[in-house]
Amino acid sequence: MKKPVEILVACGSGIASSSVAAEEVKKICGEAGIPVNVHKGTVQTIQSSAKNMDIVMTTSNYRGHLDCPLIKVFGLISGIGKDQVSKTIIDTCNEILAKRDE
Question: What pTM value is reported for the model?
Answer without folding.
Answer: 0.94
